[in-house]
Amino acid sequence: MDWLRALAQLREEGRSGVLVTVTAVRGHAPREAGAKMVVAAEQTWDSIGGGNLEASAVARARELLAAGTTGPERTYLSLHEHAPTTYGRQCCGGEVSLLFEPLPARPVVAVFGLGHVGAELGRILTRLPLVVHLVDSRRGQVEALSGLGLRDGLADVQITHAPVPEVVLADLPAHAHVLVMTHDHAEDLVLCEAALRRGDLGSVGVIGSSAKWQRFRKRLLEAGHTEAAISTLTSPIGLPDLPGKQPAVIAISVAAALVGTLQLDAAPAAAMDSPADLRG
Fold first, then answer.
1. What is the pLDDT of residues 44-64, one digit of tens each?
2. What is the pTM of this model?
3. Cis (ω within 30 of 0) for the bond into 236?
4. HSE toward the beta carbon, residue 86, CA cutoff 13 A
5. 3-class DSSP state for residue 21?
6. Cα dihedral sign for 185, 188, 192, 198?
7. Rounded Cα distance, 42 and 190, in Å
8. Residue 133, beta-bridge partner list
């Protein structure tokens, strides 16, 4: 499989990878400028030349993956016989410049409930580089949204009719972000319980007033969930200082708060954009 198909496969599978490109060559080297390879945690695809050059690049790419780095890094590797190496001699005599481009797995966001607010929120989220699940137990709501061209945006979008939406929630990957805003408070409560039973989601937000949330909190406590677990759910959702009850305004508020959460998730991953010497 070549590097381009490998990138597509990683994105489809929700896995992170690093694209490694030979950006410049001085003197003799195994591959020309423009050669590429893709490195994942346990696999590699294509080649930038083999030997110590490639082994060193793979090792560095996996360090970036392990650190959660999102910014690019430029490195240089000398190929003369006196250069320090870890993975064997490579005496081509030249020098290679490499560009490492980490490609993190896209965050997963699931919106349960495609009423006025959910539909507006879906439109916004599909413009972002996310995996977006739009779910409703009502077939009509799903069919109405399916005809709006939402798959033409940046996001990878799945629109699902789910008579039992908690089944979809159970199948989400760990660390997914969930927004509960169905037409039925009983359905909202079932989804909250399903989220608490998982315990591995990135965030869970529930639309509604403070009064609604107090009723939900009481019911969840009665169902045996702990205060600590319940506190991981957020309700009301959105930006508290943004007024307005129009569906579009609420959707903008919820989307803005979610973007803030996603940025916090990515914050520990610092960019490394200054040149470095890759010793292998």
1. 999 998 888 899 999 999 999
2. 0.84
3. yes
4. 12
5. strand
6. positive
7. 38
8. 110, 158
